[in-house]
Specification:
Layout (H helix, E strand, L loop, with lengths): L4 E4 L6 E4 L5 H8 L5 E5 L2 E5 L1 H7 L17 H6 L3 H12 L5 H6 L2 H6 L5 H11 L6
Antiparallel strand pairs: 1-2, 3-4
Bound molecules: zinc ion (ZN) (2 copies).
The site of one zinc ion (ZN) has 7 residues, from loops.
Length: 135
Amino acid sequence: MSHSITIRCDICGATCTSDATDTVSAARAAMVPLSWARTLRDGQVIDVCSACRVREKVPGTLDREAGCSCEGGELFDVLGHDRFGHRLANTLLRAGVDSVERLSSLSAQQLRDLEGIGAASARRALSCLRSEPGG
Ligand SMILES: [Zn+2]
Ligand SMILES: [Zn+2]
């Protein structure tokens, strides 16, 4: 059964609804051709509509290292296109964490308990998501 998923722009509140998808990440992927984007702001991953992208000059994707030819995905963009970021994102995917949404819903303890994620990786993942001073 398919249902529609609505993505809301975190800057202006505009919404965009996708009917043909079952998951939020698939809905987000469907937004990309409409010039919607996911971006990091103040340590939070937010959805940005096409109008706000123009207004706020939000880049389409976070900077990726030149020459990186990985398949990418939002986890990779958030965790970073370097060796550590790639390994961490791949490990998370294998552990069933396939979206930034999912990642942000996990506590530090839950992250550490995931298969293949150590304390250092958990810390890096969390610091990529939010930049809490002293956190
Ligand atoms: Zn907007
Ligand atoms: Zn990459």
